[in-house]
Request: fold
Amino acid sequence: MTRRLLLVGILCTVGFLAACAKYGANEPGSKYGYSGSERCKACHPQEFASWQDSWHSKIVRPKVGAMLQEAVEKWSSDGTTPGPTVGNVTGQPFVLADVEYVVGSRWKQRYLVKNSETGNLQFMNMQFNRGSGKWEKYGQKNDWNTQCASCHTTGYRITAYDDRAGKTLKSEFAELSVGCEACHGPGATHARTTKAKDIFNPADVDIQAQTRVCGYCHIRLENEKWKTAQGNPREDFPAPKVGETHMPWDDWTQWYPTEVVIPGVQKNHPFNAEYAGDLKGLFKTDTLATTNGVFEEAKHHQQYQGFIQSKHYQLGAISCNTCHSPHAGSGKEKKASKETCIVCHDSSYTVEKYMPNTGKTADNLFVRSHTFAKNPREGGPGASDMGPPNYYGD
Reply:
């Protein structure tokens, strides 16, 4: 098994673009003006190095060097629960050697194998919880390329769609994971001219626009306009037209409003309404939430929906970038978000107190709320309660 993993690692490293191409990845710079994050490295080495060390760069990766050590060791069983055995869409049996890509590693990790029926990637039936060290059921029965990829890649676009059947037939992307151009836009022209006017910088737009750059992916929604390869509503947010991609300056809050439900963002879909399906139980709506006047996130990747409820956002005081930096700046260290509260407040204001872990991301594992309630509730365990991940082969 070790030899096979090593061989796959060599193939993924040397022929990474070719390997990605079979799932719709463009060679950087080959289409639509994307150059790829590696191209940015030449002129922005400090920014590139800090981005490469970020979670954005690690959302989706070839398995070698990215699989959690503990997950590999417990692949057959964690002592109680068996590990992944089948693909969720096809029900076809798969083994560890069949895994092509992994999704995540900070809180949990999921595993992608090929769906031979569509040529896309599908999830396996179990995810690994880093907090508990246990396997948990994972029931996503839609191809990853047509359900999650608009935010797990850079430059994602639908390229073929069956309107009659309501299915995404083909899609492509410029780069796996959240690359430089996800937040700065296509950079081929800038790479050639090196002029600042030829690249988008979130720091140059207003607070609301800055926050929307991050909010495009840090939301939870249900999409009736675009359906998965299996014909189900998508849970991500492809651009309005076939062949188009999201640009960081887009005001996506105005995209096809009657065909997508974004609770809390749209006036006709309030935070405290009752929702069904994946949107059920989206926010805390108990007495404490009503008293505070904010509805904390009860699931993960809803940071935008939490933050826009805060006075921080409503008063135009800060954006996501005020406390978070996706990478270091020229001659500047990357921000430590936990240390930014004291810039404006005294030392009693801590993320542990005012940003409790309310959004469930796995069994007994939670991510931080961004509502900044005056009387915050007590949160559960989160990423700060775990050490850094150990990867197989490191």
Observations:
- The CA atoms of residues 325 and 335 lie 6 Å apart.
- Residues 263-385 form one domain.
- The two ends are 16 Å apart (CA to CA).
